[in-house]
Predict the structure.
Amino acid sequence: MNGHVNRGHSVIVFAVLVGLGLVTLLGYYFGYVPYLEAGNVTTQKSTLLMDTVVDVRVDGRESDLLVEKVFATMDDLEGLLSRFVPDSEISEINRRAGQWVKVSPLTLEVIELGLEMGALTDGAFDITIGAVLELWGFGSGQYYVPTEAELEARLATVDYTKVEVDTARSQVRIPEGTVLDLGGIAKGFIVDQGIQILRDAKVKRAFVNAGGDISTIGRRPDNQPWRIGVQNPENPAEIRFILPLADRSVVTSGDYQRFFTYENERYHHIIDPRTGYPAREVTSVTIVGDNSATCDALSTAVFVLGWKEGRALIERVPNVEAIIVSSTDVWISSGLDQVVTR
């Protein structure tokens, strides 16, 4: 159901989650499945992590142990990187804004990657957007339509270039008032860490699907690429496109995933760091690339940049493909155009 708020009054409303996965793997099933190939087995399980359903499939010896190791690692990383976990390292950075905070190497890595993506996208992706997201209530469920003055004050805290990183000492410092939020990149980064565990174990066939952030190893048992369904923004119950995927990652950002309504206008969670308002020019962005973290950040950035600037960004970033959907048109990058099923 849609949540309703009044301007100037913060009230508790219902979050809207129209399908936890904006992209989904097609033609697979859950459970523990015998896989008869030289004594190998397939283990496929799901659990709830990062406020979404995470599915992991691994083919090979000790697949059950590897699946559990992936889940445990992803759970640990959520505990480091989420600003909604009180004892996370990101929460500690936010509590001690203005001070240097020592963090673990992985936290430092994802922050540095977030800053690189900020530079690549000229600030369309910005990990210091947290104070603006808090004002709108995305993440807390207490949705609110802010005034111009309130937005202006919060926007003054948004500037990824002011995040300081001391790599040698593994320390991070943000300005007072700034709120670090890794929501646009952390899930992809966590998926990548899970996939890396499987690659290190020499797994030949696997996937991790974290609510639509999907990364794959190898191909399906029939030697065909994994088939990825991308939702129709106008009717999320339908599949609009089918993508083949092998040894790559895919992420979709859509305006239909989390939103609330106020005076018959829908406000979604993909906020433009430059204006403080939800980005409006497109309705869905799907990114295919070499890793989920980059896809995660780029899907947000392209959505924010919109139809023209978003396409220009994709065309200048190597090894990345995209599908951009607006209310009136669709653009598919050249590397996908001949392989996408419409």
The longest strand covers residues 235-245. Residues 292-316 form the longest helix (25 residues). Residues 248 and 290 are 5 Å apart (CA to CA).
